[in-house]
Structures are given as C-alpha cells and as structure tokens.
Specification:
By secondary structure, this protein is mainly alpha-helical. It is built from 15 helices and 14 strands.
Length: 412
Amino acid sequence: MDFKKLANQYKDELLNNVLPFWLQYSQDKEFGGYFTCLDREGKVFDTDKFIWLQGREVWMFSMLYNKVEKRQEWLDCAVQGGEFLKKYGHDGNYNWYFSLDRSGRPLVEPYNIFSYTFATMAFGQLSLATGNQEYADIARKTFDIILSKVDNPKGKWNKLHPGTRNLKNFALPMILCNLAMEIEHILGKDYLERAMDTCIHEVMDVFYRPELGGIIVENVDINGNLVDCFEGRQITPGHAIEAMWFIMDLGKRLHRPELIKKAKNTTLTMLEYGWDKEYGGIYYFMDRNGFPPQQLEWDQKLWWVHIETLISLLKGYQLTEDKRCLDWFEKVHDYTWAHFKDTEYPEWYGYLNRRGEVLLPLKGGKWKGCFHVPRGLYQCWNILEQLELEKINRLNVMHISQGIYVNSDNIL
C-alpha cells in the first residue's frame, strides 16, 4: 500500500476541498456562530443553530490551528463561534440548549447531553489555541455537569416512565473516552486516569459482550444485563467502531497493549458483522437477533460510519500490524471515496440508500456539520504519514545493517 500517496490524498481533500467549504459558507458574519444546513453547493437552507454542531466546528478549527498550522483564518473562525456559544448557547449556568434561532434565541431546552460534551470539547481546545482561561473554566464547569448527569443524561426531560425499564446507553461512555483525553490539560493527570478507567470499564466490560461473539450492544439495563426489546437488541456498528479508536488511543496513552489488541479485534468483528454483503457499505442499525430494526433508516449508509471506520482500521494496523486491518481499510476506503465524495462540488454527501445511491444532496444539516469528514481526513492523513515514516525507518535500518544507507528521498 502506497502510504505516501494515500496521505497526500487525505491531506489535499482536507485542506483544499472540505475546510474551504466550511470557512466560506458556514460562518454567519452578521450574528455569529455557524450555519450547518447547507445544500450541495453550500447555500443555506435553514438558519437554526444546533449547539452540538456549533461546538464541533469550534473544536475543529481550534484543533487544526493547534495541531496543523497557525492559520489566522482558522483561529478567527473558532473564536467567533466560541464567543457566540459563550453568549447564547446556555442558560447562564452552563446548561447547554439543543438549538437556537439564527440570532441566538433558544428554541429547544437543554435535554441533550451531547450539547454539553461538544461544548466541553470546543472550549477545551479553544483555550489551548488562545490561552484564554475563561474558555478553560467553561470547559471544566461543563464537564463537571456532565459527570453529574451520567445516571440520567436527559434529566427532567427524560420521557421514560421511571422504574419499569431503566436502560443505559453506549453513546455517553463512548464519548467520554474521547472527551477525557481532549481536556487532559484542564483535568490533570490523576483525575484523567481515574476517568479513563471508568470509561474503559463501561465500554469494554459492560457494552462489549463476549457471549454474543465479541460485539458491542447499544443499550443494557442499569445492572449491565442484556434486555430483549427494540433498544436492548440494537446494534450500531458505526458507534462501536468509532469508540474503538478512542479505546486504542487510551490504550496507547496508558501503555496497555492488551487493550489496544482487544479494541482492534472488536473493530474487525463489528465491521464483519455490519458490512452489507450484497451492496457493500456498513449498515446504520441492526438487531442482534436478526429481527426488523425499529429505525426505518436502518439500511442507509452514512458518512460518519464509514470515515470513523477508516480511522479505526488505520490505528489498528499502526498499533498491532494486523494486516487484516489494511485489507479492510482498502475495501472501506474504495467504497467511501466512490460513494460519499461529491466530484462536482466541495464536501461530501452524508446519506446514501442501501445500494449506495445519494439520498440527500445536502452537505450539512441538523445532524451533519463540520466534524466527521474533516476530523477523519485529518486523522487518516496523520496516521498514513506516520506509517510512511515508519516504513522509511525500517528500510533504512535494514540497509544500514547490510552496510548500505539509502536516503529517504531515494526510497520515495
């Protein structure tokens, strides 16, 4: 596999296609914040602002400023979004609304925990980019609220009747695995490692089910038991696979190779489980007993599922050298670039039908924003560059051992 060529492909797509799209079309220069409901060409078709997508875009441009290049336009984009969030995104006590109108007036109450998680990520990364302590304080205060809501994330907006079927969902411990590392500079090492252990236990001991062949379920009861109902039978391959690269990062951070190996194996298991053998691509939702899923969109192929899978496969190969990861990467890469990339206009499609045909030509909406595509392109570019350097170093060591030194430019 030509790691250098692939790295350049992902890098070019990120820097010259996807990021310019969001910089040009998403910024609301009049009221602040971002438009996310953008059609195929980038035209705004709805001006409502969804807090979790606002936070994701602040995080994205802050992260790129911190890790790729100190581009002023990236920092300016992040800061103006952060200021809009700080002013309008919460009720004054860091309870983050779900959505606002264009001018910042709240539309939907703070029922969704992911408004909180992505606000935390946003202000954590923005504090690094700017050195602004106020942003760090917002991130820490919001993170503390998240932890207080773990047992009942929706709080008073929980519509389930108490005491009948109390379920806990995979999504929150999954995102906390990533969130803890994102704000390590705010939490401190000791606090971080305690939080990591809790998150790892939930993901890899509670929702991971060896009795089901090593797959991850989306919901269990409060005691960690399987439940036979729609929610209890739900499998979401993309969620599980995305979580595995978070776990691999934690395994690397904590020097736990056994955890990395388990996450890599789970990635492969979930991919084999979720792959559509007839049309290709990864199913959105499945039922572990093979019954019809409750979600009518169960067989759609979604952008985030596939690009998160690419990240997990590359990390799995880099950290374990399991060539099955590369074989699957090639297969998923070919499907993803053939079906989700718009060859005429910038950015990627989000929603395909089972056959891989475009369902909605939008580039952003209520659920798709400036996050999975650019983050995935960045991650894959970064890992592929590292793999190329590792390949060069191995060749140099081999040649040196034979009494020959080959310059890396000649190898390439």
